[in-house]
Design goal:
With 125 residues, the chain is of the alpha+beta class. The chain has helices spanning 4-11, 14-17, 46-51, 63-69, 79-89, 95-108, and strands spanning 27-30, 38-39, 57-59, 110-113, 118-121.
Length: 125
């Protein structure tokens, strides 16, 4: 469901982590035990959800979450642009990684460096 690369791409990604509201149904991962993603229970209380708002837990956006981050009303970087981009760059086995790369490239001028396992600033072009 979540590849090791995808987990690396999101856990230290401030722009994406800042979008998390720690809602019921969100996927989270403990930063120390990365092999155990879990979903916040639909029965979790507000206090339980709040308890996950720490540096020890990171949000793992689903594909639906990622699609929701793409602004359909923008002149550039909208859903139509994303669909065109997909035709060129998306590999089906890594669709979440690809969607995240699009969001980071278009909205934050960053690209993933797989060797360093970090996001790097681009020139914005």
């Amino acid at each position: 469901m979540f590849t090791e690369t995808y987990i690396e791409m999101v856990i230290n990604n401030k722009q994406i982590q800042d979008l998390c509201k720690y809602n019921k149904g969100d996927w989270l991962i403990h930063t120390r035990y990365k092999e155990l993603p879990f979903v916040l229970s639909e029965n979790a209380s507000a206090d339980e959800c709040y308890n996950y708002c720490t540096d020890s837990y990171k949000w793992l956006p689903t594909l639906e979450d990622l699609f929701g981050m793409i602004d359909k009303d923008r002149e550039e970087g909208n859903l139509e642009d994303f669909m065109m981009w997909c035709r060129l760059f998306v590999t089906p086995e890594n669709i979440k990684e690809n969607a995240l790369e699009y969001i980071m490239e278009v909205y934050y001028c960053k690209e993933w460096n797989p060797e360093k396992k970090e996001w790097e600033e681009t020139n914005g072009s």
